[in-house]
Amino acid sequence: MANNNENKILNVPNLRFPEFTGEWKKIKVSELLDFYSTNSLSWEQLDYSNGKIKNLHYGLIHKGVPTMVDVACDALPYIKEESMPKSFTIFKEGDVTFADASEDTNDVAKAIEVINCDNQQIVSGLHTIHGRDNSEQTVIGYKGYAFASDSFHKQIRRIAQGTKVFSISTRNFDEVYIGIPSKEEQTKIAKLLIAIDKRIATQNKIIDKLQSLIKGLAVALTTKGKPNIAISQRLECHSSTLQESEVLSNGLYKVFGANGLVGYINTAQMNGDAILVIKDGSGVGTVSYAQGKFSVIGTLNYLTAIGNIDLRYLYFALSVFNFQPYKTGMAIPHIYFKDYGKAKIYCPSITEQKSVANVLDKLESKLFVEQGLLASFNQQKQYLLGQMFI
Fold first, then answer.
1. Architecture in CATH of 226-347
2. What's the CATH architecture for 25-180?
3. How far is 277 from 256, CA to CA, in rounded Å?
4. Any idea where the Type I restriction modification DNA specificity domain is (predicted)?
């Protein structure tokens, strides 16, 4: 690819394929797309099992579907027969739809492009904006990525309205632009990004299979005998009062929270191995493993070994332990060690514990490698979205 950082030619991206030259055309989104009415159907009015017309709810745009939505392959819900709207516009190949609201300005106007419609019918649903390039200035596959680019979302962030929930309307598309090169260059850009997305999808499947294998083996190997020892007899629970606001962006020791590494601090709570357990919030009961000098914020407990026990074995045992009976609280669920610590788990001989932990360790190490690859692919995609568009 050719880099345009030094030449500074107007209206071309920083990074492009070397065979293409000349400036791109900049066009208002409102001049590129014609907009169509959408419905306001809730999840309760949709059904994944059967129906005639599929519905693209804004929640699926935020989480669930890729940039290029393949109608024939991607799972989309149907409109229930009794909830069918009186009028609607069916998607055509290459149509786009935007999520018009989000709690995060980065996700306002998050867009998808519909491909491979075949004979299937799909409509745009709640909190979406349905657009179509009737002038055929773009090729199928280009618009979805152009609307995912950094240059487009920087414009959206400047105009998104709201305090807790940010939103846009079709009127805002009079204020934002995208760049349009020749159709040949559009096609090459789309093919590259579609190939990366397919590789990301494959990598996600690899990770899902590995996670399923590890969980299945952990269940089989740590529950094959009768529960014979209480958790509190082999693990000691430690709490923390550290708040995320006290965490530094740089420091000597890692600090872990509900979402993993959250920052650093200069004084470590722990020096050694420990099992980390989320004790409240949406991820309550999720376990992870930490080593060396580290600290945790107050939403986590860390558990250390008592007596002659393999801590990694207990980590895998707790990773498949059912915390559900020990959850308390309605709005924010909690678990307490004083409650689930009384539960018994199966602890075989120390030799067998080490053997089980060794098998699962190797699989988990493989999982971490695959997750690292996924992160690399996602970083590559984000870099290209930041450099290949204007």
1. Alpha-Beta Complex (3.90)
2. Alpha-Beta Complex (3.90)
3. 11
4. 23-211, 243-374
* Cβ–Cβ under 8 Å, residues 24 and 180: yes
- What is the DSSP track for 14-36? SEE-TT--SPPEEEEHHHH-EEE
For residues 7 and 14, what is the distance between their CA atoms, to the nearest angstrom? 9
Closest to 326 measured CA to CA, from 314, 311, 338: 338
Strand partners, 321: none
Low-confidence ranges of the chain (pLDDT < 50): none
State the fold for domain 185-224+349-390. Helix Hairpins (1.10.287)
- Cβ-Cβ contacts under 8 Å for 376 (sequence gap 6 or more): none
CA atoms of 276 and 296, how far apart (whole Å): 8
Residue of 95, 162, 82 whose CA lies nearest to 133: 95
Q: Would residue 94 be called left, alpha or beta, if left means φ above 0 and alpha means ψ between -120 and 50 degrees?
A: left
Q: What is the pLDDT of residue 43?
A: 94
CA–CA distance, 103 with 380 (Å, rounded to integer): 26
pLDDT number for residue 10: 79
Comma-separated ranges of CATH 3.90.220.20 domains in the chain = 25-180, 226-347
Distance CA 129, CA 102 (A): 13
Please, what sign has the CA dihedral across residues 134, 136, 140, 143? negative
Supply the pTM of this predicted model.
Answer: 0.85
Cα 328 from chain centroid? 28
